[in-house]
Amino acid sequence: MNECTIVPAEQPSTAPLLIQQLLRRLAVPLRTRPEEPGIPPAQRIQAVLLEDNLGAALVLYPRNQLLDLKRLAAFSERQLGPVRPERLKRMLSRHGLGCLPALPAITSSPCLYDERLLEQPVLLIESGAPGLLLEIGREHFQMLLAKARPGRFGEPLGNIRPNLDRPGDDSSEIDQAVKTFTARRIQQRLGETMEIPPLTRTAQRIIKLRANPNATIEDITSVVETDPALAAQVMRWASSPLYAAPGKVRSVEEAIIRVLGFDLVINLALGLALGRHLSQLSDPNQQNTPYWQQAIYTAALIEGLTRMIPAGQRPETGLAYLGGLLHNFGYLLLAHIFPPHFNLICQHLETNPHLWHGHIEQHLLGITREQIGSWMMRNWEMQEEIFTALRFQNDPDYAGPHCAYANLVYLAVNLLRGQKIGHGLEQPIPEALYQRLGITAEQAEDALQKVLRAEAALREMASQFQQSRDDEPQE
């Protein structure tokens, strides 16, 4: 990645020695300022180190743009892609840097820059110390770019408008994206996704139970006990420190009745059923937090948050948990249905760490993972609460029907991002969201700390979801 990767215990006050020496040698005044909210993104320069078989290249562009790799390839006549995160981290560590400064002289590689970054009179770049920026006037920055090559390969974010609040348009927008961006055969696969590959008999039974309001503990116990892999998982979950069950759990029925409860077991099992039949991912963005680990963390935190909501306005705990477990399901669908385009999305996520994934997906596909994930949930006839949780999870101001489910996902995801769990930018949590849920920021922090204390157990639970579909019993 090309973000700051080392977070100091306290805010640095000076730039790293290497940067001070470099600016002194280039006769550029050293002016620093702390990174803070409200800085115009057009003034912030994003630096990314890319490479191909010819070597590396430093690319600079303003943060109010998306770096389009196809345009960059046409401009540079090179197929540049992200440098592996571990390689970049080693390079930065050797020079005592925590993040990559937008200074061409920092590397011997050629530099390419989007010429529109020089439209600003003052530019702000990473200093090499996280949380501290360098302020450089346009004239001095032009001097630094003397040997760099200008071009236009960014897409202004003002031209990219993801559909955040019109779910009624999702179906037509998905169809349009398929017709204009992909081969027509993809549309057929989209409609067949829930049968390809077919769900196991166990999965089908669980889905029927989830839709049956008269289903009992005996019903779900019977399903779990006839599937050894699922039974083992339920026993592990019941023994997890997260649930702090007194005494040893000796049977599946005891695990369900005494510890986990009907809703939690059936929702965990359903999440497993819907996820396991999709292709396994090979995404470089998962190196920090694998997909299912993030899903389990989010669901567990939502469960804790839900229990803090006053009883009179508390959403159904099981559905809230399932919304957290499936919140990023559209990501799996993109990987499964559009594999070539998914790889391109992953590359753009790596090279645009300052952007919300919706801008990238909208630009490349014309739809977002939230649209396709919620569309699929509706086609699978899942509850409206689940559809809402997935569709509006990125809108902290959503106050429409079933808003608690979407608000809980937004809250949980951003609390976890603050702990470097998951991917994407941590977004601010408005006080109005806490008020709609009927909880305080302090209560939310308490729920977060409980989840963090159970981190090892949650990782073990997540590992069960990541096992290959081949591990499931043949039926």
From TrEMBL:
Record Pfam families: HDOD, tRNA_edit
Domain of life, per lineage: Bacteria
A GO term, aspect molecular function: kinase activity
InterPro entries given in the database record: HDOD, RNase_Y/CdgJ, UCP036888_HDGYP-like, YbaK/aa-tRNA-synt-asso_dom_sf, YbaK/aa-tRNA-synth-assoc-dom
Record-annotated HDOD domain positions: 196-396
Swiss-Prot/TrEMBL keywords: Kinase, Transferase
Residues making up the signal peptide according to the UniProt record: none
PANTHER family given in the database record: PTHR33525, RIBONUCLEASE Y
Protein's name in the database: HD-like signal output (HDOD) domain, no enzymatic activity
Organism expressing this protein natively: Pseudomonas flexibilis
